[in-house]
Structure prediction request, 290 residues.
Amino acid sequence: MDNLADFLYNSFPNCKISYLAEGDDSIAYMVGEDIFRFPKQPSGYKNYIFESKLTQFLKSECLLNVGVPEIFTNQANGIYYSQHRALKGHKWNFQTINSMSQKQRQNFIYSIVDVLLNLAKTNISKLQKAVPELCIKSAVDITLNTDHLDYLANFFTPNEIQTIQTRYYSAKNNLKTESQKVLLHNDFTGNNVLIDTSSGQITGIIDWCNSMIGSPLIDFCKLYNPVHNDLLVDLLSEYNFRAKTNIKIDQINELEIFNLTNVILLDNLDYVHLEIKANKMRMLLGNKYN
Prediction:
């Protein structure tokens, strides 16, 4: 991170620079009013090219309030980055939402549901022609050997592992019946959804690098926090009413346990990030069974 900060300070000496957020595959800074994102792996810049194509389509076809990032490289030191220009707003967390007034919170819920419904209405056929790299993924895609569940012993008690195994295979079987396919952001978190904290309205959405076509359940997983699940209850109520669907919070819980098990078993995160995922898993299990 230090060399990226140095690069920004040297390149933009007259701008205010501040650290914004870090994800599994990228690091973000605010430079003036612009958002700069840097891939953690050199090949990650290809994701930014994909993101730029996708957001251009969304801006013109879905009329979503998304920034279309420009892709740059500094040949001298091999640094690649994407730049969102003047994309205003602040990242949020569940404490921020809980501190909002009833009107602000309602505006936030309406804004989130508006985005998800717009994504669900996207013309998939037209989108795939514009962005052929976009993948279609089942809610239960597995790219790992699930026989290695003993790896969970690094993070959980034997009783917790038994519960995880039961829920994992239950989710795998139940989610196979999920047939609806929509465009997904696939990382719908507070780091990527920017809001105006005074109104609660969404002002922008970033990091479309992981977007795909799949079950709408997947985006709701990112909005699920076991400690603050009242937000998801309200979101599902509004979404189900407007989309005429019947998504239940238990389905989200089930899928999130499945997803977190996959992430932990992939063993491609550093220990700190794995422990964060494990803590969320403990909360999910506690919320469901304790």
